[in-house]
């Protein structure tokens, strides 16, 4: 096996069976040279040196004539004696003499006082025991060496450490700041997701599956002259499953899958974003055919020329320009398909959305009823549910929920069932989970006075009464006066999923929302702050009717809504006179519906009173309770039939109130 293996020489080949090869590092050579010089300079090769315990032993050697030369190290108070050949053989053993010159034997001894030792040497000379020379030297002190070179060596070691840390690619060091941070996945990963795990989204899955088929069987399309799409953009609200679809592509496709976020391109250093784009596509071309997924692409694909920081660094625009060039420039990206996801397609640059870059825009909408049933079935596969659980009813009680919301409902229901020591998750656990997510946690410690409870009951009964007698009002599920979250009372409705909403449906909804304030004025003689959330909602709805939908009699067929996301700058798209007329129309609509709500409450005052009394007694009412008081709804729908037959009317045990809390305005929770 070769000693050095340079990386770029045989790149792409399989490693040998002998294991990983040794890779040369130039810094090791520096360490070897420094160690070699250090050993030469500070160490000698003479190993025949024996220390003596006392001066008497040294004197015995001198008397026998075995010492030919004496060297005195005054800084260490140590003397060294050069032995003769015969004395060397006597002092050292045969094993110690192997491989060493016999004439270089030495002994060392410590003395106390230099003058006393010099007198001994003079006496040895007078007696004729010692006839050699006496020399004086300074011994080598390695402690001084440490204090001299130690700080330098420490700085060098620290520099090497920082150099390696900055140069390490996986840590995003300075020397790898321009490298792509994309992660590569394949179908053999542990957390593999397939199209079977993605419920609903049938139209979106069809187009995504076709992209996978492009890579698996390209000849099926190219034989007819077709070209493989270069990119697909997943657009939709948060939580609808855009990233889940991308994970399914990674699990289904038999090609490399690169995944990264749009924010990974953004960096404080100039030119880094463009460098990472180039590196990403370089890796993709080497692995082609492959798929590159960029999540939250709006972080880097925002429309150019609209930077809020005017005149500032346009690093983000440079990154976008490089991305545009790589996706459809002079270079060839054959076999590389770009997937991207965003929930803000309106702010993306038009050049990014054109054909040839993102050939397809796949809209991933909120799931409808059938999709929600399928999503519930997916998330209930690994959960212990009670027999006879009606998944269809759960799907109907969660309109407007995204896939992520439904997953949260299933998980919350499992936690609630475990909290109550149940063996399986039943319908009530799911209902409580929906209530927990929409309305918040029950405030069992909040204490309400009798007058407050009466006001809340009359308010909520007003909503229930009016919604029951309006054609387009949302069917009632449950009304409660138990504090939950920030609300002191809440009402849950099940709206019809309409594709087109008539103007009368909006007016009925405004009227039902104002029912709480109208009930307070009629049956209490005063109004309170409990309708703050209701008023905010009806004001927005009325403005939408006038300004967006053109449903006003005085300002018909005009819409000031800009669906493209382009702002109007610093001015309104209408005059001050028109603004005044808009305000008048909004006030008129709200006033008419408020008077309408009071008229309905006067007509059904007796039933409203019964409903309020039931709320005061039980603190919660269901659809069956309202039907028992007012009779069946005149405008029964499919939803009403389901609620009448499947919604339990059992009386839950009201939660205890044991502690006071701060006074908060009531907020009505309507699931719209």
Query: What is the strand arrangement across the widest sheet?
Result: 6-8-9-10-7-11
Count the beta strands: 14
What Rg, in angstroms, do the CA atoms define? Answer: 43 Å
Class inferred from helices and paired strands: alpha/beta
Q: What average pLDDT do the residues reach?
A: 76
Low-pLDDT runs of 5+ residues are 1-20, 638-672
The helix count comes to: 24
Distance between the termini: 71 Å
Overall shape: it is: elongated
Biggest beta-sheet profile: 6 strands, mixed
As a percent range, the share of strand residues is: 5-15%
Portion of residues within helices:
40-55%
Question: Could you explain how this protein is built, in words?
Answer:
With 672 residues, this protein is α/β, with parallel strands linked by helices. Helix content is 45%, strand content 10%. The chain has 24 helices and 14 strands. The strands form three sheets. Strands 6-8-9-10-7-11 form a six-stranded mixed sheet. Helix 11 (315-327) links the parallel strand 9 (290-295) and strand 10 (336-342). Helix 17 (450-468) packs across helix 22 and helix 20 (532-548) packs across helix 21. The longest helix is centred in the C-terminal third of the chain and has 28 residues, at 576-603. The radius of gyration is 43 Å and the shape is elongated. The two termini are 71 Å apart. The model is unreliable at 1-20 and 638-672 (pLDDT under 50).
């Amino acid at each position: 096996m070769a000693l050095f293996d340079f990386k770029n020489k045989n790149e792409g080949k399989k490693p040998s069976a002998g294991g990983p090869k040794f890779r040369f590092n130039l810094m090791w050579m520096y360490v070897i040279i420094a160690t070699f010089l250090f050993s030469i300079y500070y160490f000698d090769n003479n190993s025949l040196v024996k220390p003596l315990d006392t001066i008497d032993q040294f004197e015995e050697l001198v008397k026998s004539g075995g010492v030919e030369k004496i060297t005195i190290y005054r800084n260490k108070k140590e003397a060294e004696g050069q032995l003769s050949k015969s004395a060397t053989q006597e002092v050292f053993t045969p094993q110690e003499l192997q491989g060493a010159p016999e004439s270089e034997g030495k002994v060392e001894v410590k003395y106390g006082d230099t003058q006393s030792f010099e007198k001994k040497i003079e006496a040895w000379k007078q007696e004729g025991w010692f006839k050699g020379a006496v020399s004086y030297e300074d011994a080598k002190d390695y402690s001084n060496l440490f204090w001299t070179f130690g700080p330098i060596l420490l700085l060098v070691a620290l520099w090497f450490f920082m150099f390696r840390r900055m140069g390490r690619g996986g840590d995003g060091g300075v020397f790898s700041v321009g490298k792509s941070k994309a992660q590569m996945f394949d179908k053999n990963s542990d957390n593999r997701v397939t199209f079977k795990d993605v419920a609903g989204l049938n139209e979106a899955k069809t187009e995504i599956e076709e992209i996978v088929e492009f890579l698996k069987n390209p000849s099926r399309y190219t034989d007819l002259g077709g070209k493989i799409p270069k990119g697909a953009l997943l657009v939709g609200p948060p939580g609808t499953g855009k990233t889940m679809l991308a994970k399914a592509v990674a699990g289904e496709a038999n090609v490399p899958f690169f995944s990264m976020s749009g924010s990974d391109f953004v960096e404080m250093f100039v030119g880094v974003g463009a460098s990472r784009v180039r590196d990403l596509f370089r890796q993709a071309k080497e692995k082609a055919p492959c798929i590159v997924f960029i999540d939250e692409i709006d972080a880097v694909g925002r429309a150019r020329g609209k930077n809020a920081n005017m005149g500032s660094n346009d690093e983000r625009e440079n990154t976008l320009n490089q991305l545009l060039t790589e996706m459809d420039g002079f270079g060839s990206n054959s076999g590389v398909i770009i997937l991207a996801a965003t929930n803000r397609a309106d702010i993306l640059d038009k050049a990014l959305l054109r054909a040839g870059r993102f050939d397809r825009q796949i809209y991933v909408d909120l799931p409808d009823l059938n999709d929600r049933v399928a999503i519930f079935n997916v998330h209930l596969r690994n959960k212990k549910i009670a027999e006879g659980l009606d998944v269809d009813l759960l799907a109907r009680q969660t309109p407007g929920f995204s896939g992520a919301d439904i997953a949260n409902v299933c998980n919350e229901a499992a936690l609630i069932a475990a909290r109550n020591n149940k063996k399986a998750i039943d319908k009530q656990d799911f209902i409580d989970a929906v209530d927990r997510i929409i309305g918040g946690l029950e405030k069992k410690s909040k204490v309400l006075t009798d007058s407050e409870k009466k006001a809340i009951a009359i308010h909520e009964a007003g909503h229930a009464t009016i919604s029951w007698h309006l054609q387009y009002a949302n069917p009632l599920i449950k009304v409660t006066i138990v504090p939950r979250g920030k609300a002191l009372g809440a009402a849950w409705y099940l709206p019809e999923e309409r594709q087109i909403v008539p103007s009368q449906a909006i007016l009925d909804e405004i009227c039902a929302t104002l029912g709480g304030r109208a009930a307070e004025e009629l049956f209490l003689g005063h109004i309170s702050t409990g309708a703050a959330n209701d008023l905010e909602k009806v004001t927005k709805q009325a403005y939408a009717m006038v300004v967006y939908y053109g449903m006003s009699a005085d300002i018909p067929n005009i819409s000031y809504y800009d669906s493209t996301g382009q702002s109007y700058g610093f001015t309104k798209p209408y005059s001050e006179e028109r603004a005044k007329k808009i305000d008048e129309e909004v006030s008129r609509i709200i006033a008419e519906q408020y008077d309408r709500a009071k008229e309905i409450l006067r007509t059904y005052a007796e039933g409203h009173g019964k409903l309020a009394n039931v709320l005061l007694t039980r603190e919660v009412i269901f659809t069956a309770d309202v039907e028992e008081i007012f009779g069946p709804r005149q405008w029964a729908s499919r939803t009403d039939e389901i609620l009448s037959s499947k919604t339990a009317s059992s009386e839950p045990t009201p939660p205890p109130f044991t502690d006071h809390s701060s006074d908060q305005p009531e907020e009505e929770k309507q699931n719209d």
